Amino acid sequence: MNEHMISEIVETVKEIDVLLSQSKERRYAGIFRRVAESSFDPDLFWKRLLAPEIWGGSGSVVDQIFIYGENEDSKKFWQLIAILGDQVFRSGKSNSSINLLTGRLKRYYNV
């Protein structure tokens, strides 16, 4: 995997961090900040990025965030998650959960 792809993913993760830091969902921002901050260590970076804490089932970020209705922040978050999921897929590191969520989000938000 090339360095450009990782830097592209880090930029998306940073966008998510900033969005969440400025929203009522700020409690989740640190998860994405830790992913971005670990980009110097590829093993740790991928471990944090692909963690069930983000993409997993019950209790994960994608399960818990913005569940109280759609607004501009939630729409932007889900669009960024779709972009991030697509980037992870193109990296070859994706899994079926990420692929399924990404496909649904891309169709729903026209990403």
Class computed from helices, strands and strand pairing: mainly alpha
Envelope shape? globular
Task: Tell me the Rg in angstroms.
Answer: 13 Å
The portion of residues forming beta strands comes to: under 5%
Low-pLDDT parts are none
Termini gap: 24 Å
Biggest sheet statistics: none
**Series of H and E elements:** HHHHHHH
Helix residue percentage:
over 70%
Got a strand count? 0
Mean pLDDT over the residues: 91
The count of helical stretches stands at 7
Can you tell me about this structure?
This protein is mainly α and 111 residues long. The chain is 70% helix and 0% strand. It is globular, with a radius of gyration of 13 Å.
Relevant terms:
mainly alpha; 111 residues; single chain; 0% strand
What's the topology here?
Elements: H1 3-21, H2 29-37, H3 42-49, H4 52-55, H5 61-64, H6 72-91, H7 96-109
Helix pairs in contact: 1-2, 1-6, 2-3, 6-7
Brief account:
This protein is mainly α and 111 residues long. The protein has helices at 3-21, 29-37, 42-49, 52-55, 61-64, 72-91, 96-109. It starts with a helix and ends with a helix.
